[in-house]
Design a protein that fits this description.
The protein contains 15 helices and 15 strands. It is α/β, with parallel strands linked by helices. The protein folds into two domains: 224 residues, Glycogen Phosphorylase B (Rossmann fold), CATH 3.40.50; 161 residues, Rossmann fold, CATH 3.40.50. The strands form three sheets. Strands 3-4-2-1-5-6-7-8 form an eight-stranded mixed beta sheet, sandwiched between helices. The chain has a five-stranded parallel beta sheet with strand order 11-10-9-12-13. Helix 3 packs across helix 4, helix 6 packs across helix 10 and helix 14 packs across helix 15.
Length: 412
Amino acid sequence: MKILAIGDTADNLHMLKKFAKNSEVYLIDFPKKGDTLISMVSGGREYFESLLISKQVKKIREIKDDYDLCVVMTWAAARVAYLSGINYIMYFTGSDMGEPPFAKNSIPIFSRTKQTLPNLNWIERNFYRKVFDTAIACVAIMPQFLFLKKYRDDGIRFDSFFVDTTLFNDRITPIKKPKRKFTFLSPQRIGKAKGLDIIWDALKLCKTDFEVLQVEWFIQRTEEEEKDNQILIKNLPEQVKLIPLIKREELGKHIVWADAIIGQVTGGTGAIERDSAFCKKPVIHYIDPNQSVFIDGEEVVPAFEPKSKDPRVIAELIDKVVTSKEYREKLVQKQYDFVKKLSDPDVAIRDWENLFEKMMKKYPSINRKNSTLILTFERLSAYLAEEFIYKRKFRERNIQAWGKENYERLTK
């Protein structure tokens, strides 16, 4: 099976490519800021040479007939697949399905803010609803599946979730860096959406002596979130030291170096927690007991602790992890056994390749049956909107984000 993958989030499709057994996956991603701002095959993926929708669609239309099926991550990737006239599967992680662009007045799903995200106009919302409805299948992990089933009766739930075991395991050589005391690494983003305010409150209640290295990486999609982050930084607990963002390919070395990991307080398990458990490090991570998963047909509550987000409970657990080697070892084994059954690549790839086989039987061609007139009109509308809205209205903001030279090259 030859699968075209467009877009990526947290290397999920890159891992699909890396661990595929009965399929060949070709990943093309959007240009990134920083070191990956290149137009060449790098690290197992190709990057679009342009930020312009028209050139991205042109690229996909040039290569689509070499593939049997397409899988996309992010709404931007789904938009390109739709405008390219192909059959595609949408894969939802993070917050993409909880904050769909076709919905009005969406509230950030992991945030406790009441400020809504900016609305698109009715033409844009209608377009993205069409992009969503046209997907031949929609796959989501928990808790994204709970949002997905509100909009599609045929949504597919995958509880298995890739961990790149070549980057995250307990045999990795740790970084060479001295430790003054028991050290927690906190690699998730700073923001109430991740529960950092609750972690801060818990740290101030702790009685043991330790250090927390927190990556300086923020969630700030709204003005309210930006203000909340400023308050969090102003009230930084004495144990916390901010450190630069760590590249993903180096993160495992930092995890095995640390004594323990502080995860998020969202109720659901993310990549940080799974990756750390594969490195056999104890993880402080609140789990909502109602957010169970299925392993071999059995409903299981994730094996992370605590099961309460009360700061006092979290503080007691942190102190216990610091003081008790026996408890750390028991927690590590319980967490590792859980993620091994759920997120080992050999387990996760089965679900995907079974889905690919099923979809290819139902859709023998990657080319979608559609109205050429409607698709041509929508392509033209997208290109005009791009020219008159994206390139002009947001020019200064994008130049600031990308740098003038890069932005002009990518929108030429």
